[in-house]
Design brief:
This protein has 330 residues and is α+β, with helices and mostly antiparallel strands. It folds into two domains: 10-175, no CATH class; 196-323, 60s Ribosomal Protein L30, Chain: A (2-Layer Sandwich). The protein has seven helices and 13 strands. The protein is globular.
Length: 330
């Protein structure tokens, strides 16, 4: 396997099934030092792997079944492009015998609709810049691997989903690289992944918008099953409106979320209507230009808590705001 020249590197040890059914270790080396920020496993599940871009309200996909491992890495490569992050991983998968299924970039993928139409772990563990992300999927026999790559101003983000292989195979693990030692004076490890607690400790909503991904507007009140925003003063919207007025060149998206009660289509429609109600409040009450804020809804596709409890379902019913501009000058 060809090695990269970076002195700050790490390898992913992903247990993939050999054609005989035995576990085979494939070491995928990252282009820079990396730490695991999130992950989950399932002994048997199904995954709709995208096979084409989102078009005309549809995301083409192929359903695969088997043990699934989903892992996110935060990569210490603040200046690297998404292609620089993806290319070495893609090359290593192809070298290991995987056949490419589908690859796309940002708008060619379908933008917002593609990002929320496929399985991606939520912010802040997996950050996806809607103006700069890439997707790659490949297969080897009954196994499928997909990669989502994006970045923030301070780090790169890689999500890998692997379906297939032995049910008792170890989940992806980060192992030390055998490459040359780090250059003296340079940090060996990343700063810790940003957590919800980190964001909650930020001084203002402006700090959270510019330092993180999406920010929940926790004080909004909707009647049960309703898209109408209850009358009242909402400090989060007052703060958001002030930030938008101070930054007229920036745009945001309001993204509605629901719990998993009911069907997906109905929940997407409800979540979009709730986000639109918040958008109209910002326009009509605070005078925000309509072009500065958009409304979207993803239903129950991006939970932040378990839907198995009432408290978890309550946490999942929310509207979040995220910056959609890709450049920001304070």
């Amino acid at each position: 396997m060809k090695r990269t020249t970076s002195t700050l590197s790490a390898a992913l040890l992903l247990c993939l099934a050999a054609p005989t059914g035995l576990a085979q270790a494939l070491s995928l080396e990252m282009p820079a030092a990396a730490v695991t920020s999130a992950g989950q496993t399932s002994d048997l599940t199904s995954y709709a792997v995208p096979t084409g871009p989102f078009r005309a309200g549809t995301l083409p996909s192929r359903r695969v079944e088997g043990p699934m491992r989903q892992t996110v890495w935060r990569v210490d490569a603040p200046g690297a492009s998404t292609l620089e992050l993806l290319a070495p991983l893609r090359a290593q998968l192809v070298e290991a015998g995987f056949r490419p299924l589908f690859e796309c970039e940002t708008a060619a993928c379908g933008g917002f609709d593609f990002r929320y139409g496929t399985l991606i772990l939520p912010e802040p563990d997996m950050h996806v810049d809607l103006g700069d992300f890439r997707f790659f999927a490949a297969e080897r026999g009954a196994e499928v691997v997909s990669l989502v790559v994006s970045r923030s101003s301070v780090a790169g983000f890689v999500q890998m989903i692997h379906v297939g292989g032995a049910a008792n195979a170890a989940p992806p693990a980060l192992v030390a690289s055998t490459k040359a030692p780090p250059v003296p004076g340079q940090p060996v490890a990343l700063m810790p992944p940003q957590t919800a607690a980190t964001l909650a400790g930020a001084d203002t909503l402006a700090d959270r918008l510019t330092s993180g991904g999406s920010v929940p507007l926790e004080d909004l009140v909707f009647a049960s099953g309703s898209a109408a925003l209850a009358d009242g003063q909402y400090p989060s919207l007052i703060d958001l409106a002030g930030w938008l007025i101070d930054n007229p060149g920036l745009t945001v998206a309001l993204v509605g979320h629901t719990d998993a009660s009911g069907g997906l289509d109905g929940n997407i429609a409800l979540s979009r209507k709730r986000a639109e109600a918040v958008r109209q409040h910002l326009i009509e009450v605070h005078g925000i230009p309509p072009t500065q804020v958009e409304a979207q809804g993803v239903g129950y596709l991006s939970p932040r808590a378990s839907n198995l409890t009432e408290d978890g379902r309550k946490q999942n019913r929310r509207v979040e705001v995220m910056v959609t501009s890709t450049q920001f000058t304070p």
